Amino acid sequence: MASHGSACPCGSSGSSSAIGSGGQVMTPCCYCSVEAYLKTSYIEQNFGRRFWSCVNYKLGRSCRFFHWYDPPMCVHGKRILRQLREKHESLSIEVDSHVSMAEHGTPQKNAELEVITLQLRGELSQLRSELETIKKKNDEDQRISRNVLIMSWAFFSIVMLSKLLSRSTNDESLALLQ
Ligand SMILES: [Zn+2]
């Protein structure tokens, strides 16, 4: 909503005076006795030119208040403005085409990423199986060393036992001799 100048001088509805006595911009009132608001025209003949309009216009009210705020543009200004608009439109089209190109490029990127992901997955499963092999080998080594330990203990025990037995037999034969 435009806030040019003072409150609405709506004593007289449909005021068409936009400039106050002190050169101050006054907000006019429409035929509904409501403060008008400033809009911008985008039609070819008056592109960018501002005008006062009724706030209820969009609500389908019959108030047809209309008052130009900006003076009409000179022919040269209109021509410059048209050129700028054309330039803007062509740039917009170019931007849109770049955007759509970027969007079309995305599936290709996705496919590349998918290939990389598959490769990484393959490498990962290979590493896992290698790790599994190493684990198994480690378990086997541990089992073997445990068995070796048990067997050496058993051997040691047998040797000790046989020594003890032979000593006791010797003692017995000595006792018999005495
Ligand atoms: Zn109105």
From TrEMBL:
<keyword id="KW-0479">Metal-binding</keyword>
<feature type="domain" description="GRF-type">
    <location>
        <begin position="30"/>
        <end position="72"/>
    </location>
</feature>
<keyword id="KW-0863">Zinc-finger</keyword>
<dbReference type="GO" id="GO:0008270">
    <property type="term" value="F:zinc ion binding"/>
</dbReference>
<keyword id="KW-0175">Coiled coil</keyword>
<dbReference type="InterPro" id="IPR010666">
    <property type="entry name" value="Znf_GRF"/>
</dbReference>
<feature type="coiled-coil region">
    <location>
        <begin position="117"/>
        <end position="144"/>
    </location>
</feature>
<keyword id="KW-0862">Zinc</keyword>
<protein>
    <recommendedName>
        <fullName>GRF-type domain-containing protein</fullName>
    </recommendedName>
</protein>
